Amino acid sequence: MEAVSLWGLGVVALACAVAVFACDSMARATFALLGSLVCVGGVVFVLGLPYLGVVTVLMMVMEMVVMAVFMVAYMMNPAGLMPMSMLHNKRGALGISAAVFASLTGAVFLVDWPQRRGSPPRDTTFQVGKALMGGQMLTMVVLGFVLLATMVAATVLALHRGRYDRLGDDLDRCPARDPAGGGVGR
Amino acid sequence: MTFELVLVLAAGLFSVGLFGALSQQSIVMIMMGIELMIGGVIVAAADFWHFLAPAAADGQVVIVVAVVAMAVEMAMGFAVTTALYRARQVDTTDMARELKG
Amino acid sequence: MVEAGRWWTVLLAPALLLAGALLAVAADTCAAAQHAGRRPSLGAVGRRLLEVPRLLTAQPRTLPAADRLLWRLGVLIVPAAAVLSVLVVPFGHRGVADLSVGLVWFNAMEVLTWAGLWLAGWGPNSVFSLVGGYRFVAQGLAYELPLMFALISAATGAQSLRLADIVAAQQGLWFVVWMPVGFLVHLAGVLAFAFLGPFAYPAGHDLAGGVLAEASGVDRLLLQAGRWLWLTAGAAMAVPLFLGGGNGPVLPAWAWSLLKTLAVLGLLVYGLRRVPVVRADRYVELAWVVLLPLTLVQVLAVALVVLVRQGG
Amino acid sequence: MLTLVTFLPLLACVGLALAPRSVPDRVCARVWAGTAAADLALVVGLWVGFDPHGGMQYQQNHPWIPAAGVGYHVGVDGLSLPLVAMTCLLFLATALYSLRETRRVRSYVCLFLFLQTVSVGLFVALDLILFFVFFDLSLVGMFFVIAGWGHGGRARAAALTFFLYTFTGSLALLLGFIGLSLAATPHTFDLLELVRGNPLAGQGLYAGLVLLALGVGLAVKTPTVPFHTWLPPAHTEAPAAGSAILAGVLLKMGAYGFVRIAMPLLPGSWRRYALVFVIVGTVSVVYGALVALAQTDFKRMIAYTSVTHMGYILLAVGAAGVLAGTDAQARSLAVTGAVVQMVSHGLLTGALFLLTGVLHDRGGTYAMDAYSGLSSHAPRFAAATGVAAFAGLGIPGFSGFIAEFQILTGSLASQAVATTCALTGLLITAALFLRALRHMFLGPSRLPAAAPATGFRDLVPSEAAATVPLLGAALVIGVAPRFLLDVVEPASRTVTQLVAR
Amino acid sequence: MSALLWALIALPLGAGAALLLSGRRWNALAPGLGLAAAAGTFGLAVASAVFRPEASAPLFAGVRAGLRVDGLSAVLVVAVAAVTTAVLVASPGELGPRENRGRFFGLMLLFAGAMTVTVTATTLPPLLMAWEVMGATSWALIGFWWHRPDRVRAADTAFVTTRAADLGLYLAAGAAMAGGVGSLDLTALTGAQGGWRHVACAGLVVAALGKSAQLPFSFWLSHAMRGPGPVSALLHSATMVAAGAYLLLRLHPLLVATGWAAPLVAWTGGVTALALGVVAVAQRALKQLLAASTSSQVGFMVLAAGVGDPSGGTLQLLAHAAAKSALFLAAGAWLTSLGTEQLPALRGAVRRHPLLGAGFVAGALALAGLPPLSLWVAKDEVLAAARAQSPGLYALGLAAAAVAAGYSVKALWYVTRPLPHDHDHDHDHGQEQDGGRRGARGPTRSVSTPVVVLAAAAVFLGVAALPGLSGPLRGVLGGGQQHAPNPWEMALSAAVALAAAGAAWWWLPRSAHAPRTASAGKRWAADWLSMERAARAVLVRPAFALARALAAFDDRAVDGAVHHLARGGLTLARGAARADDHGLDGAVRAVAAGCRRLGAWARRPQTGLLHQYYAQAVVGFTLLLSIVLLVR
Predict the structure, then answer these.
(1) CA within 20 to 30 Å of E129's CA: A92, C97, D356, E67, which one?
(2) pTM
(3) ipTM score of complex
């Protein structure tokens, strides 16, 4: 049962992956990518990591929806109605990725992988939770900080009017000049 | 045998993502390519965890990190693209080559 | 306690969900009539239900350069996701599939509606539907975080993601008693992802029906069905999370679950008319600035209680 | 007491330098003269209290750089006291002579006060490094005097040649000193200990090299022939007072170095290489006299005569080193002659240069053929120059004869051939001085074009007061030399004994 | 007693110095003061001759300045004082009031003092000091009228020549010291060991010959004649030139001790006497004739010293001093009054000034060595001693005596000719080249009396020296000499002198009118045997040439070498600077350029194209991965 599902999911994932760069419409590319990543979530689910699998699907769906918003905002031809090739250096990229694929698969088959050690715990979610909160606390802290930094940086970068513009030249205008009203304290 | 096959799947995803990243001009498309590559990594991590070291949680931590990385990459990518777009109405890497050496 | 049902429960659950949805629609038409001053009559309800065969036989409108694939996908996803999310909910002491990560599954299916609705909005290649889709995404950003933390507070209280464990944890005391904020935020969330009542902003009349603007025929039917299915699914989910699932003094577990679900559903349908449609950016401000901290405090309180109880 | 004598001028110099700008030049000159007179008085006091047979007296010894064995050790004996007296007398003379100086008087006075301190300091120094420090400071002082107040266009070039040339010599000297101190078991630069210890007694080659270094350093300073080419330009460009001090005092430093350092500290190698010094001395005598004979510039001629006189000293000092064929009395006579020659040359050539200063001040040039029959214009000037010239060529009755007689008598015993050659030097010196006198002072009267319309003014009181005492002192030494010889002879006897050991 | 001797020296020297320094201030008083000092000196001289004081003072280490008046020096001291007084009496006449008399009298007294020290000195240093001072004063006096460059040049020549000879004294002093005679005592010189004695003796001989104007140094005496009359009278006749002879007379024991010195001195004296006699005969100017005659007469004294006859020598010295100073005074007076010293022009000078003329005639006769006069007697003594030594010397002496007679008579002949009628005419065309004051005025009495007195002294001295009376004189001189001249020698010399005088008197009128075709020999003799030209050619000119050459060599070679060294240093510095600029700096700049190029290369991969970065990253990682895998 597991092998069949793995095969299925694998083939669908690859198909969607290829579809991402094959189709013209940006929306279709986005949702092909979503499909591929959902399959990845599925594979993870099947490989005995239910929590991570479902969380991956959860995150990917939200991400792709947001990406779709940006896709439409920035792409010249989001709907892919006017087919044009947005590619460059196709041959080079193909060559490199083929070479990488060949070397990786070669490595996969040549390297004698060690035998499995130990058996999966009963509750994998508990295992990862315990690890993150215990031995891997440093990773958790780092991830926390990275996420915080990303939030602040992304906001700052994306804001049209910058962080300080709203506070006027001398940074002291009391009700900051924000385009949209509302917000705390106003 | 499934272990190697899943790894091949991961390699495949990684390579397709790589091809996309290298060949696409649009920043968003490149980010999609990178997302696929990270997806490959997640698959590989799960595979390693499942087939080699289920006892330890390291494989899972790698997946968590990969997922966070994907989220961060996404956020920062679009922030930069927004800033770039707002500044110069350009969204392809070819036109944003000011940081040329 | 709750063990996975047999194979036929897979069919029973959708049926029950559909029934619930129909009941909700009827209640809604009665409320609308009462609201309009007329007496709620069975005929009005019947007329409302006749909509289904009308839509099924209607000629679907075709639009130029519509992305038919994505459109069809979007319209299908919304009801499918609702149905899938219910599989995890335990009915009395038996659920269809008792996943160890049932709560996350429900959340994942709930997020799928975002994708579905956006696709439904993008598909017809029309401005109003696209804007409607965007509105839903914006509304989603608003309600998603408080809803997640509400679910997390329930999970923290039960120290597990499995719904059966959550129900079991509510033997003594229902979570709604010491997680009221979580319950309210959950209800608001249910209304939000069913984009009904105060949260009908994506399908707002100012956008000529928003997401439903271009939907016609089967598409429109599926979308409408999806809204009401999600409403009942949300109500069903609230029961095991906050209202102790099948626990109850006298009646059997499934009866209590049914009763509680109908109660919640009634509460929601009652609330639909009472609150005006809230604009997404206004709600996002309320959600992120007020509800989010509250739910965080809620989770913190729950975690402390759990620690004290476990520690002591 | 000696430190007071040495550093009194320096105090005055510092006082003057720090004095407010408003101090008029005339006061500066008077201060200089006063200080010089006071210094001379102190030295006379020293002389009176000096016991000829007491060896080194008025000693003061304080550690200065103990790590390197260098101490501030000063003292006077028969050799250095006359020279110190002569230096003070000469500085007083130059002070009086410069009363009428007009160009930048304040710094001029400060420089000369500094030079006096340095010169006296050198003669009283009994520590090699102290000697060397004063040796080099004198170069610096003289460089500025020549460069600053020299009248020729090439003053700066001459000053630079003078400085670089003698400075290189001083470096060789320093090398020698270091060699000396290293040879001593407790490394010390103290002269008396080195003399007592006689460190280089045994080492032949090493001592020879040290003597070579010392010899070259001192030879450059007392200009012996091969190293003398800096002297004539330095003199022709230097101002009168500067020339007087350069010839009167600075040249003696080199000669004094031979007697004070080279002979007592390196007796063995001095005896072995004495012949070299004799030959260089003799050549200097004859060569200096002949080249002087061929000069047309009066001051340059006198400069070359200085080379001759220094040659005599070197001859005497060299002869004193040769033990064969002489007895102690002859050698000490030669050394005494050398010291007296230093004193007499200082007085006479100092006077001569001051008088040439007068000549240049009036006539604007030193060329002999530009003047003629000056006696008619300036009888007193002519008389003074005549007397100085005759004293210079060794007429008895003046210190020149006393010195040269002792040198020649003392040196003939061991160096018959060299001394006879040196005798011809006497003759040539006589010829050149007479020729100069005849050209300039006697014969029909003719003044150079540059001479002012008022004619050739005679000696001004300040100039007379400067030159006449010097000639008077030379006369006193010439007539009654005993007062000087009583002081010098015991010291030269000790030096000859040291060389002979 | 030594105070007397110190006084004897101090008086002339002190007075002289005072007068010299006073210069023109006491011009009027100068003669009186000078004369007083001279007289005082004379008195002291007589006193010291009687008491024979001795004195010494410490001079150098182990060397004392000793003075003693013994037999020989006593006589001389008195003689010097006497002649000085006489000359000073005559001097005011010679020098006009406008002259700088203070300087003249000062120098004369200084000279007298120096001469006194010379004769009384017993050790070499004072002798040498006095010797040199005499030279200096003679220079000052010869060049007294320094306005005329030729006079000064003559003074210089005189001084340099005598100075050259004086070097001998230095040599002698050094040799004595070397030879072990620490005290430098003249008498002890014979004790010097080995070769040093010969060296000392040679030095002394040379000095003496130089000072006494013997061959080959005698040419300076002809220049000395440029000085004023009294100077010639005092210095260049009586005292200075005699000093050399006196020295040899005193050091006769040393001469004998060395063996070769005595004959050398004797023969030099003889030859000088003869040669300079001939030169005197050939002279046309009176003073030049007298100067040459002085040299020849001193030759006799040197001959006496050589053969070891101090008393004869001294007598000769005294006689000659008296006679010659008289003649010079007269000649000087005529030079001032008649303005010329050429013999033809002095024709009949005796008649013009009878008293002066008489003195001159007496002096000339004495000079001729005619019998009863003093010089004849002295000459006989010397010749007697010479004969004892070697007949050749005796013959030489006789010939010299004959020649002496010859030139004396020549002078006499011209001077005693009858006055030419156009008396005044002579005054005008008298050549001025002798520089005398032209016809200032007639010789006053002050000149005539000393001339007469001196002439009288010259005559009467002869009498005292006659064999009968010579005992006390020889006793005074202390030198007991056996060879008293036997009568036939005296007769022979008298005959020779008379014959020569007669011949000269006969031959002179003929030659006076003969055409002036002077033969080569005559011209050579007239030019003082061209000794000066020889000396100048042999010594002076090469010395100057050598001097000029050396000066040039010094400026170019030695100074040049130093400047080349400096210039070499500069070029080295420039070379180093260039090397530094192009070499090192170049290398540094090359490295910099290389870095810039590398920089450019490093920037090439930074194309700004994102996809290329990815490609590079991937290739890089794969390489890294493969390395890690391969290496492990």
Answers:
(1) D356
(2) 0.67
(3) 0.55
